[in-house]
Amino acid sequence: MGLDSLGAVALIFDLEDELGVTLPDSAFSAGTFDTVATLWAAVDGESNRQPSAS
């Protein structure tokens, strides 16, 4: 995706805020940011594991 490390961290924080998920430290790997699909897989996997906020 062409992100540097600060861009990746900022993106993760934005996604966590917007989607109400918390990604584990293991999600912060280079492979997570290879493509939009790999990033979405990490986010979607966490959103399915966490209880809803309702």
UniProtKB/TrEMBL annotation:
Stored SUPFAM superfamilies: ACP-like
Start and end residues of each Carrier domain: 1-47
Signal sequence span is none
Q: Which domain of life does this protein belong to?
A: Bacteria
| Species per Swiss-Prot/TrEMBL record | Micromonospora luteifusca
Entry-linked Pfam families = PP-binding (PF00550)
In Swiss-Prot or TrEMBL terms, this protein is called: Acyl carrier protein
